[in-house]
Amino acid sequence: MTTVAAYAAPAAKAPLERTTIERRAVREFDVLIDIKFAGICHSDIHQAQEGWGEAIFPMVPGHEIAGVVSEVGPGVTKFQVGDRVGVGCMVDSCRECENCRAGREQYCVQGNVPTYNGIGRDGEPTYGGYSEKVVVDENYVVRVPDGLSLDVAAPLLCAGITLYSPLKRWSAGPGKKVAIVGMGGLGHMGVKIAHALGAEVTVLSQSLRKKDDGLKLGADHYYATSDENTFKELAGTFDVVVSTVSAPLDFNSYLALLKTEGALVNVGAPEEPISLNLFSVIGGGKTLAGSMIGGIAETQEMLDFCAEHHLGAEIELIAASEINEAYERVQNSDVRYRFVIDTATI
Ligand code: NAP
Ligand code: ZN
Q: Crossing angle, helix 296-308 and helix 185-196, to 10 degrees?
């Protein structure tokens, strides 16, 4: 076991503070990673505040981890000391079920082991990336390609894959009109990735405050959802709408923006249920779908795609002492566009 410094929430809704945690000794197939950067995802806040239900405390959040391998177990074949690597939202799964075998480990029928706020298959609680080091089985570690620096790569491990996976599955590409709802951490990566895939991209944001940025990141159009005319003007326009919004939305209005047989794909995880009029989907034969992160191989594919297209996240690098302030800013939609913790400051 190694004692490492970390930032943890001692209880639900309590401010995060510096502490120490134990990391397990490296096992046969483990790699020890010196964490360099950790992104702050809105999911960290939902969980630290128990917005999704009962959670495990103390909680060390962080599932957008980028770092360098500093030790490998004797059975490790994929990584060597010095490799630049990433870890996302899961650190294990059963590896035997239909989904694990199909590379959809995130949907493991036994439940994947989340990077934090989870219990490992060894019965021990998991702790995330707001810390100096982490030990992870090599099968749940991905390689950060040379073309991406680690700070802007970190957010790709959750925000990047969460948009890449549904955009690919729903065929975002040339000739397709795609709308991204919410220009936050997930949304801004959605704009970049959908643009790189060749789709015509529209941002639907609460206001026009971030319009210039959206257009620079690759959006072709940018509308404010606070303006009622937006919904009139864009009715029946899109092949795919992806919602990244962290709060409940009126999905009936967003379904009306789809073409016949278009798909509204939700990746946002609000704490409250929504109300849906089912006539919004039956008229027009529309699909309302969900998507959760992506599998390990797909995460590697996403990183390679982002490196090839020079797509890192737009980040604001912060010291660990600024985490609580960053949480408040994320909750106020005041993030441009991902806070990343420099873990050297923990
Ligand atoms: P974020 O950076 O806070 O971005 C969310 C964006 O949603 C905000 O920037 C804002 O965009 C918009 N928004 C917020 N409140 C709103 C409201 N009341 N009405 C309308 N729009 C609102 O959060 P994130 O890290 O991107 O995460 C977004 C959501 O996805 C969270 O619920 C998170 O837990 C979830 N998530 C899901 C997955 C998955 O696998 N499915 C993975 C990661 C995260 P504008 O300012 O442009 O309006
Ligand atoms: Zn996340």
A: 70
Record the tokens describing residue 140, joined without a space.
């749940």
Angle, helices 159-169 vs 185-196, to 10°: value is 40
Q: Who lines ligand 1 at CB under 6 A? A: 41-43, 46, 158, 162, 182-187, 205-206, 244-247, 249, 267-270, 291-293, 330, 333, 335
Q: Please confirm whether the linkage preceding 337 is cis (ω < 30° from 0).
A: yes
> Is residue 10 assigned to a domain?
yes
**pLDDT tens per residue across span 103-145:** 999 999 999 999 999 999 999 999 999 999 999 999 999 999 9
| Same domain, yes or no: 285 and 325 | no
Q: Do residue 135 and residue 164 come from a single domain?
A: no
Q: What is the pLDDT of residues 35-44, one digit of tens each?
A: 999 999 999 9
- 326 and 238 in a common domain: no
Enclosing domain of residue 321: 2-158+313-345
> Distance between CA atoms of 170 and 242, rounded to whole angstroms?
10
Please tell me the predicted confidence (pLDDT) of residue 113: 98
Within 8 A by CB and 6+ apart from 49, the residues are: 12, 13
189 and 318, same domain (yes or no): no
Q: How far is the centre of ligand 1, averaged over its atoms, from the C-alpha of 324 (Å)? A: 18
